[in-house]
Amino acid sequence: MEVVIVAGADAAGRLVGGAIADLVGRRPGAVLGLATGSSPLPVYADLARRHAAGELSLGSARAFLLDEYVGLPPDHPQRYRAFIARELERHVDFAPGAVQGPDVRADGPALLDACAAYEAAIAAAGGIDLQLLGVGSDGHIGFNEPGSSLASRTRPKTLTDSTRADNARFFASVDQVPRHVLTQGVGTILEARHLVLLAFGAAKAAAVAQAVEGPVTAMVPATALQLHPHATVVVDEAAAAGLALAEYYRETWAHKPDWQGL
Prior knowledge:
3-stranded antiparallel beta sheet, alpha/beta, 10 strands
């Protein structure tokens, strides 16, 4: 695992946006894994800037969402498909249908078929080349709450009160936050070829420290990134405050050969 400590969220956006631009430059048909929430917003802003400047095309790329709420109306602005359309898709040149999320139109046991279909769609696309991730204050990735199997696949999940409280800032009240979601599992996430986790602010410091330097445990699903051959954690100074090896991470990043990239 590589840890990169940057000055702030904008610097992280430029760094990760540059890595995505390099990937797409090498492989125009690259497959991206898109996360929602506030953490990836600086990356999406950087991709939009690069596209507007003529430096980036996603016209041949594909993308899959990490998760989606169950139970929101199709036109609800806080559906994650709407979030990605608003924050990224309308600012770049993805082809129609190139961005896909799990199908939450089904109900009851039919949701299990939708999960299997989503796994099959990712596999048919050749797998995800670069997966963006955030981390919850309790260490969850996607909506894999503490206790989730590290081998889990895309499935329905019930959100805890703490996760719903974390997401309430996007709704009028916590009561409007859905209780259920479909999410890629930890095992699904680990199959992406490059994982990039972003975290900013002091509220994420404990989760980052556990994810990077704690024992691998289902109680902190983000610790599964320690098992991945190419995982990158990009954090600001506040989110890095709990890292025992922060100086080591700064030194190794400062002297990393340019040709290696992110």
